[in-house]
Model the fold of this input.
Amino acid sequence: MPVIDMSSNPQCERQHPAPQRAEVVVVNPNGTLKNVFVWIKSGLAPAHWAPPAEPARLDQHGCVYQPHVLGIMKDQRLEILNSDPVNHNVHAESVTNPAWNESQPPRAEHKFKQFDTQEVLFPVTCSVHPWMRSYVGVSPHPFFAVTGDDGSFTLQGVPPGTYTIEAVHEKYGRKEGNVTVTPGGAATLEFTYGS
Amino acid sequence: MAAEPNFHPGLHRWSMVLAFCTLLLVVAGGTVTSRDAGLSVPDWPLSYGKIMPPMEGGILYEHGHRMIATMVGLFTIVSMVWLFRVEKRRWLRILGVIALLAVIAQGVLGGLTVLLLLPWYISSAHASLAQLFFSTTVAITLFTSSWWLRGPALTDEDPRYPVRGLSLAAPFCVLGQLALGAAARHKAIGSIYHICGAPIVTGVVLWISLRILLHYAGNRELRSAAVALTGITFCQVFLGIAAYMTRIAYADAVQPMPLMVTFTVLHVAVGALTMAASVSLAILVRRNLIAAEVSYPALAVAK
Ligand SMILES: [Cu+2]
Done:
């Protein structure tokens, strides 16, 4: 991935000892893909899943978002931090949930936001630093994950049943797979992107 | 040469300043769009709650655009007041009022599009009205010149090669093309419509310009205006192709994309010049060419 040119924003650039690369596509050393949002798309029996009390966190640090892709439950709080010495604007480009755009100066209070409708993957962006782009997936249940440095994902505590699992990547798009979970058992599913 | 009684050199020079600043404003606005900086300042009319926010990153472009816009707004007020104080032509004073109303509407559209998160219809309207406003400032510059006040260089329209009606087609085609470009830029439609419009508009411009150059070249004013419009349109087509090619080349890149921004913003600015040149040509054609019908004075006799 190309190096982000932060030269017009020295206060951002200074925070990166090594040049920051764009995170649109991050291939792990083992050849797997990082930052893929994975969730149960369908197959769950209707139920009400209470959102966790702990908020999910999105930090703006070194003028990049941490994490780059974030999963959150519907009605769970999203805590947004600005750890930078510069102004950011935070623009939730959601379509199903109401979109919003707010400024967040340095040392400002954390923002707390909620999304009350399922919406898998919309961008959260900053126009002060136009390379800043993260993605948020709002799930109606707790069975979602984002692939990390080894490309794996784990959905824990899934009740027995047959499900459609969806993997969503910001550039390579959506993939689906089916899986059956037996009582007390585990199931594995592998997604392959690319040609 | 005797000075024209209604010529006010100061007013004319001021009109030129206003037109030039408006072109800068178009460049600033185009830069905001090309750099995706429109939402870097979420509040309006203040910026981060201040008159002067820290000019970092995208804020530099968005707030810089607001500052130049404020200046152009104030300059337009001065223009209108000046016109009302010295200008004898009522229609020109009215044009001054129209210009002021347009620039106010433009400011409101700019603010609204920020507050409503850049809906394509408001952003496109903002971009299109900018082009119309620039043409208005150029027309005011034309009308306040001593050259205009000396009167038209009249030529009879040749009924075999009518161009009085045809000349009106250019500004409308160019405006349509600008609106398509704006809509494509603000992601309402694909750029294919703007690309397909280009040969049509270029054809109309060439048709009018060539007709003037072939049949009315003896009229120096018309000849110059036609050459200017053709030359500007030529540059515009070149810049359009360059803007498109850099866009394709940058398809996978992340901002900033300096070459794409440069060509696209130049394309927007020369688009404004194309619009102004087509409006000026139409104005001059309507003024200098005597319509064929006028040579029948008997029409004035009632039945
Ligand atoms: Cu930022």
About this structure: Chain B has a mean pLDDT of 93. The beta strands of chain B are 155-156, 289-290. The pocket of copper (II) ion is lined by residues A 63, 88, 126, 128-129, 132 (CB under 6 Å). The longest strand of chain B covers residues 155-156.
